Automatic annotation (TrEMBL):
Pfam families membership: BtpA
Coiled-coil portions: none
Family under the similarity heading: Belongs to the BtpA family.
Organism, as annotated: Psylliodes chrysocephalus
Name this protein carries in UniProt: Uncharacterized protein
């Protein structure tokens, strides 16, 4: 928790999502890496204009997702290029992180190390699950050993538990709290609680249960809106993407008015 508070010093911080346009090799790739960079930088500048507490970059438009074992080198290289440009815009005091879909946890750590980033969002940290891109095996031991090997111990690893877009039938006898305790035991730096899908709200009772029983920071990873944010104010951070977009759809452009109203609301809730 001390390491988290050095990065995020507010009662409840807001992390804005930069959803990158499709990368080279993906079905929706536009043909121009420069345009991806420009778009990502424009969104970053909008977030900074409204004093967001942190920024998280993700290759959300790389649908349909593939597992990291099938990645080509273009994934890591292109995201490193983008994050390098974004890093130039973000003050050193503002937390900056990356997630690589799907389950590109080692790739995310490599990008974070190369671009002087502060945290990564990791899938599949403890216990296996079946996602829409296939089977994801537990990987805490692998990625934390890799973090040590590349001397990136200053990069925090925030971990999804019982994550969205996934079936957890094979671990149905393991509760959310047991999963959280396993992640804590396996040295997670923070837990991410989500709803069942992008834009779907997390269970408030599950948030209360985690906050009461776990010593790690708890982040809400989906479904936060201006209408329900009061329910999640006890979380240590809110990762917000869909709500900031036009009509609340993740694949639209950022709606600056929605962003502005949300940030004003969260400041009022935090006082």
């Amino acid at each position: 928790m001390d390491r988290f508070r050095k990065l995020f010093n507010k009662r409840c911080s807001v992390i804005g999502m930069v959803h990158l346009q499709a990368l080279p090799g993906c079905p929706l790739f536009s043909g121009s890496v420069n345009k991806i960079v420009e778009k990502a930088c424009e969104e970053t500048e909008l977030y900074l204009k409204h004093d967001i507490d942190g920024i998280l970059v993700e290759n959300m438009h790389d649908i349909p997702y593939i597992q990291s074992k099938y990645f080509g080198p273009e994934v890591t290289s292109t995201m490193t290029r983008i994050c390098t440009e974004i890093r130039k815009l973000i003050p050193e005091t503002k937390p900056f992180g990356v997630q690589v879909l799907a389950c590109g946890n080692r790739e995310a750590l490599a990008i974070a190390k190369a671009c002087s980033m502060n945290f990564v969002r990791a899938e599949g940290f403890v216990f296996s699950h079946v996602a829409d891109e296939g089977f994801t095996d537990a990987n805490a031991g692998l990625i934390l050993r890799y973090r040590k090997q590349i001397q990136a111990e200053d990069v925090l690893v925030f971990t999804d538990i019982k994550k969205k877009h996934s079936s957890h039938a094979i671990t149905n006898d393991i509760s959310l709290l047991e999963t959280a305790k396993a992640a804590e035991y396996f040295l997670s730096n923070g837990l991410i609680l989500t709803g069942t899908a992008t834009g779907h709200a997390a269970d408030v009772q599950e948030l209360k249960e985690l906050k009461s029983n776990i010593d790690l920071p708890v982040l809400i990873g989906s479904g936060v809106t201006i209408d329900n944010v009061e329910k999640y104010i006890s979380a240590d951070a809110l990762i917000v993407g869909s709500y900031f977009k036009k009509h609340g759809k993740w694949d639209n452009d950022i709606d600056e008015e929605r962003l502005s109203r949300f940030m004003k609301k969260i400041k009022n809730c935090s006082h």
